[in-house]
Amino acid sequence: MATKILHAGSDKQIRAAARxxxxxxxxxxxxxxxxxxxxxxxxVATLPDTMERLRELKSRPTRPFSxxxxxxxxxxxxxxxxxxxxxxxxxxxxxxxxxxxxxTGGKLAEPALQKRGLHDVLVHDGVIxxxxxxxxxxxxxxxxxxxxxxxxxxxxxxxxxxxxxxEVLATLDGKIDVLLDSGPTRYGKDSTIVLFDADGKWTVxxxxxxxxxxxxxALRTTLLFVCxxxxxxxxxxAGLARKLLAERLGCTVRALESxxxxxxSAGVAGGGQCPATPxxxxxxxxxxxxxxxHRSRKLTSELIRDADMIFCMTDFHVEAARVLAPTAxxxxxxxxxxxxxxxxxxxxxxxxxxxAENLLKAVQERLDKVRL
Length: 372
Prior knowledge:
The chain is an alpha/beta fold. About 35% of the residues lie in helices and about 20% in strands. It has helices at about 10-25, 50-60, 85-95, 110-115, 120, 135-145, 165-170, 210-220, 235-250, 280-285, 300-305, 315-325, 350-365; strands at about 5, 30-35, 40-45, 65-70, 100-105, 125, 125-130, 150, 180, 190-195, 200-205, 220-225, 260-265, 310, 330-335.
């Protein structure tokens, strides 16, 4: 029987086609679908007959397939203790073209999955593969299936991974039940696979869309300081943080990046590439920090997403940042535990120096708790 094709081009088509694809999966069908990388073949892991068909089709009688999840939050169903660096990749790269191989510690995190005997189905050598695709139709389909969905690439052994629906049908028409056709994939290249061991050490075992350089960048410790205009408080705080971190790591400020540390600043009303005020430059220099090359930027959700911690000068800035990036709310805090740090703009040199001294104390207290 020919494979049934579900077209998922427009938003309306995506919703309808994803619902039908989810129903097909729950009924024990094999469903090919697009991720942003290549097409995969989805199957529900709790259905033995379906899994046997998938293993035969892929010529993989024993080795498990990666689990595909609708949301990064779903990782907690499978892994209880996620390595710290894996948490960074989840936050910065998911949904996206990265597959994570994570240690399970001998059992799945969700007791119901463990009791159903799925550990042996999903885990190989103590490691489970997890992928959270960014393709909207894939996300909608996966969200409609409560049981674990596994998915290898939609090709036969030894053949290239398909980049569009026609390439899937060229070899799998009649061998799979449904094709959720979203057109050509965004990247046309396999996902990057990163393996974590029980100690949290990582290895790129397959370079795909993202190379190892990009993975290393995502794993840097990134700190973001936020004020209003990004010309006084936050550049001083960032400059002082760089100075303190360089001293802690025994390197120069310029070498921080090579040590895996980045420090940025931004303003909720910033922008325009303005330099720090002369008073801020002088106050920072008085405490050993050089911010002469600073240029202002506006706070964005992307800056917040990529930061490990976001330190704000006032409660107002905290709320503004949380509005921009609600999912990052837990990482957005006021810099000083003592209260808001007032804006010195318009004040004289003494006001700026007192502000810089308050910033130095607050930054020191925060950095004492930052793990590098």
